[in-house]
Amino acid sequence: MPLALEIIGPEKLLLARAVDMVVIPGTEGNLGILPGHSKMITSLRGGLVDIYEGDRITDRFFVSGGFAEITETQCAVLADSITRQSELDPAKAQAALTEAKAAFDAVNMADRDAYREASDRLISAQAMVDSLAPEHHS
């Protein structure tokens, strides 16, 4: 029995189809979601969403964050921003990382909200650059 996967970006539903497994970048680590998974809602960090058919990755998306709602039969990924991995621009990813590092270095550590925002931005930018490394291409 397949898993119903929906990937929703800020503007629209990007993908809705049955899959064998999806791996999502949870804030506590990657989560492999199979049919029959326990119900849960988790926040997402910047990273790759890997979609499996059989034992093969058929699609990869980079999410900057968001959350996922999981039931025994469905996984809905609601992404802050999302891009197909194949459409990521390495130069733009590196520029975003440079900007995020500068913003993080300049943040007032006493301002918890600003610190958290700068930290999340830096983690997401680093994850985007890392997702373009050769071992992440299928």
Provide a count of the helices: 2
CATH fold name of the largest domain: ATP Synthase, domain 1
Q: How many beta-strand elements?
A: 10
Shape: globular
Q: What radius of gyration results from the CA coordinates?
A: 16 Å
CATH class of the largest domain: Mainly Beta
CATH superfamily of the largest domain: F0F1 ATP synthase delta/epsilon subunit, N-terminal
Order of helices and strands: EEEEEEEEEEHH
Biggest sheet record:
5 strands, mixed
Blueprint of the fold:
Blueprint: E1 3-8, E2 13-19, E3 21-26, E4 29-33, E5 40-44, E6 47-53, E7 56-63, E8 66-70, E9 74-79, E10 82-84, H1 90-106, H2 112-131
Parallel strand pairs: 1-9
Antiparallel strand pairs: 1-2, 3-4, 3-6, 5-8, 6-7, 7-10, 8-9
Describe the structure.
Helices cover 27% and strands 42% of the residues. The protein is an alpha+beta fold. The chain folds into two domains: 3-85, F0F1 ATP synthase delta/epsilon subunit, N-terminal (ATP Synthase, domain 1), CATH 2.60.15; 89-136. The strands form two sheets. A five-stranded mixed sheet has the order 2-1-9-8-5, with no helix packed on it. β6 (47-53) and β7 form a beta hairpin. α1 (90-106) runs antiparallel to α2. The longest helix is centred in the last third of the chain and has 20 residues, at 112-131. The radius of gyration is 16 Å and the shape is globular. The model has no long low-confidence stretch (mean pLDDT 91).
List its salient traits.
single chain, 138 residues, alpha+beta, ATP Synthase, domain 1, 2 domains, five-stranded antiparallel β-sheet, 10 strands
